[in-house]
Amino acid sequence: MTRTTRNTPRLLSAPAIAILAAGLALPMTASSAVAQSSQSRKVVVNPKRETLVRLSKPMTINLEQQRLEDVIQFAADFSGASLDALWLDDNNSSGMDPDLEITIKIQDGTVLDLLERVLAKSAEDAGFPESFTWQLTPHGAFEMGPKDRLNRRKTTVMYDIHDLIIEIPDYDEAPEFDLQSVLQAGAGGGGGQSPFSGQTTDRERADKQDLADEIILLVTTLVEPDEWVANGGDGASVTHYQEHLIVRAPDYIHRQLNGYAFWPRNLTRAAYTDGRRRVDVLPDPGARQGP
Questions:
Q1: For residue 45, which phi and psi values (nearest 5 degrees)?
Q2: Are 67 and 75 in contact (CB under 8 A)?
Q3: What domain range is 79 assigned to?
Q4: pTM, two decimal places
Q5: Mean pLDDT for the stretch of residues 241-261
Q6: Does some domain include residue 182?
Q7: Could you tell me if residue 248 is inside a domain?
Q8: 170-204, pLDDT tens digit by residue?
């Protein structure tokens, strides 16, 4: 498993803080000017995006009867990404078998392709197809294994559904316009009768809570249906509050709902298999490959 390290920013000394608080101008030396210029060019790196960039590294490989643990370690070394596999051990009855033999051929693929194929193979070996997947931790590590263990790491996200619960009225009962009466009134020099006939009726508008409940039903039916508390699972819960859905769930479920905000939309593909929604993250060919 590889780890990335970060430089810890230096704290200002007490005298420096006092001077800055007093609003005094400090003379700028050549070295301080270079430091300031360097800081102004500093780019904030999103660790999650950086992991996906590393896993976009292209590869062609043919593995025959290799231990799963060795394959994961090779993928970590080759890509430079931090990979956390949830192994089967004495403390966990569900997990990936480190001794599982892997035979896989990847032609013009990516490291992410390899890992997703490995996960599918591991799930089949455990006897529960579709029960293994991956997610990104808050620090950008690529965590993979059974969903029941990934469910232990949850975050809460608010999704704005304002545009989805506004019902636009359909005015299909407009009053009729009598052109003949208008012409006659004009020829006769006046007349106060309205050329419109008929009356519109007020239609019953759907309640916003009812519309929100319909959206919640769609979400819990199409996206990882077995994991929602409402369906008897323990992975995710959802409530409606002030035109927002408040979803508490692990990262892999948030990914199926809305993809990743930091990843290009044209490289995020949604599909439906057996009535279930799936969101695939495609590699970025324009991103920097590898470490």
A1: -95, 130
A2: no
A3: 31-152
A4: 0.73
A5: 95
A6: no
A7: no
A8: 666 666 666 666 566 656 555 556 655 655 555 55
Nearest 10 degrees: CA dihedral of 74, 80, 81, 85? Answer: 20
Structural domain includes residue 101: yes
In a domain, 110, yes or no: yes
Over the chain, what is the mean pLDDT?
A: 81
Number of domains in the chain: 1
* Percentage of the chain exceeding pLDDT 90: 59
d(CA 20, CA 53): 39
88: domain CATH number is 3.55.50.60
